[in-house]
């Protein structure tokens, strides 16, 4: 049989999806699975976006422009201007989700064997994009004890080698929910300028910040124009994960010109989804106010309920809609599988994402899980109750 690539063998399976077969088996047995494992919001997509697709007059579904439609990119630039981020339509390439923006970024700035420093735990698919690009991830552990704040800059400096090309952050963080402060962003900005590196920020959760805290983008830092690359997406902002639209933004012309070559190879982003995404920019502020109010209520409830469980530690998220939870178990991977295979309360169980897959350092996060609070409050309370009972039974075995 012809052999598959070494790269293919090294590609990590998604820690979020790898338990799916066990969940499917549980469902076949008649057990209801409450999904705390995946960041698929239950919030309705804005009506303006769906109406734009319903009311189109397209007769030929053509390719769009490689970099995305001119009108859409101009409107994205106007959206950023409202957030005090000054970019032009030419600084933006529309992509097939933030995912494609991440893979274009890796391809644009990194060669085989180059290194990228990422504070861990991080969005697990960064491992996949790095592997696909032949890039080595150099993790720096952040800690649940300070809500996963930025590790000391000295730790980053220790990891920088001649092969280091970039630092990648997710702000606010998936899975941590941590929102980097303006000061932390400036510390990183100074560091990348000092060592002539790129600073890549995945800002797909920008709108989701809580307790009066404001998001500060790396594109707001003066003098960082040649270093900053932002990855963005409509997936979570407008609860439009299935649209598959995102973008890559940089003031660095060489970055944009090179990323454009990757974009040309895949021809263009999807046409209907751009129509929906352009219309979504008209979403009234009230929509976001309501969504944020809902997430804050869910977060508060979830944290309160989790804190009632013995031996459980949880970081309080200030943004996004995830939290990392430390459990009184040795192996959260095993526990998560056991929940699906061997446990139920009133024919219900919960599915969580074991956190080890969000770390690149072997052994870290083994007793942690990630919970996505994308379910209604009643469901969340029920899920935590099930988790509590499960922990008692699991640890009594
Ligand atoms: C941090 C982060 N970045 C990027 C993505 C990719 O999003 P999409 O490709 O749907 O835009 C996700 C999806 O969950 C994410 O959580």
Automatic annotation (TrEMBL):
It is an enzyme of class 2 (transferase). It comes from the Bacteria. Keywords: Aminotransferase, Pyridoxal phosphate, Transferase. Its cofactor is pyridoxal 5'-phosphate. One of its GO terms (molecular function) is transaminase activity. PROSITE patterns: AA_TRANSFER_CLASS_1. The keyword Isomerase does not apply. Its EC number is 2.6.1.-. The keyword Zinc-finger does not apply. InterPro entries: Aminotransferase_I/II_large, AspAT/PAT-like, NHTrfase_class1_PyrdxlP-BS, PyrdxlP-dep_Trfase, PyrdxlP-dep_Trfase_major, PyrdxlP-dep_Trfase_small. Residues 32-385 form the Aminotransferase class I/classII large domain. Belongs to the class-I pyridoxal-phosphate-dependent aminotransferase family. PANTHER family: AMINOTRANSFERASE, ASPARTATE AMINOTRANSFERASE. This is Aminotransferase. The lineage of its organism: Bacteria, Pseudomonadati, Bacteroidota, Flavobacteriia, Flavobacteriales.
């Amino acid at each position: 049989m012809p052999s598959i690539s070494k790269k293919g063998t090294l590609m990590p399976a998604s820690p979020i999806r790898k338990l799916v077969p066990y969940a499917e088996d549980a469902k076949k047995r008649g057990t209801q699975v409450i999904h705390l494992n995946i960041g698929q919001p239950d919030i309705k997509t804005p009506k303006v976006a769906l109406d734009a697709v319903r009311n189109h007059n397209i007769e030929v579904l053509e390719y769009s422009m490689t970099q995305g439609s001119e009108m859409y990119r101009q409107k994205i630039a106007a959206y950023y201007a409202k957030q005090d981020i000054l970019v032009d339509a030419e600084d933006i390439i529309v992509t097939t989700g933030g995912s494609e923006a991440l893979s274009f970024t890796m391809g644009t700035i990194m060669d085989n064997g180059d290194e990228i420093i990422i504070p861990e735990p991080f969005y697990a698919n960064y491992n996949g994009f790095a592997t696909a690009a032949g890039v080595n991830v150099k993790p720096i552990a952040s800690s649940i004890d300070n809500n996963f704040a930025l590790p000391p800059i000295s730790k980053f400096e220790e990891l920088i080698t001649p092969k280091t090309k970039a630092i990648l952050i997710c702000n606010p963080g998936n899975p941590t929910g941590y929102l980097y402060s303006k000061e932390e962003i400036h510390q990183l900005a100074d560091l990348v300028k000092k060592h002539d590196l790129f600073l890549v920020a995945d800002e797909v959760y920008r709108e989701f910040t809580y307790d009066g805290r404001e998001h500060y983008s790396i594109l707001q830092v003066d003098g960082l124009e040649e270093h900053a690359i932002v990855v963005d997406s409509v997936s979570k902002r407008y609860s439009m994960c299935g649209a598959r639209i995102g973008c890559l933004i940089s003031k660095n012309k060489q970055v944009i010109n090179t990323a454009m070559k990757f974009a040309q190879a895949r021809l263009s982003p999807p046409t209907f989804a751009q129509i929906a995404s352009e219309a979504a920019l008209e979403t009234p502020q009230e929509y976001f106010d309501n969504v944020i109010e809902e997430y804050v209520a869910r977060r508060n409830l979830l944290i309160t309920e989790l804190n009632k469980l013995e031996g459980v530690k949880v970081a309080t998220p200030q943004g996004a809609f995830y939290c990392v939870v430390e459990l009184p178990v040795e192996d959260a991977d095993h526990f998560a599988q056991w929940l699906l295979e061997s446990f139920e309360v009133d024919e219900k169980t919960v599915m969580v994402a074991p956190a080890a897959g969000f770390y690149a350092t072997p052994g870290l996060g083994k007793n942690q899980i990630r919970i996505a609070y994308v379910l209604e409050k009643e469901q969340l309370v029920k899920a935590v109750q099930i988790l509590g009972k499960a922990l008692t039974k699991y640890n009594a075995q």
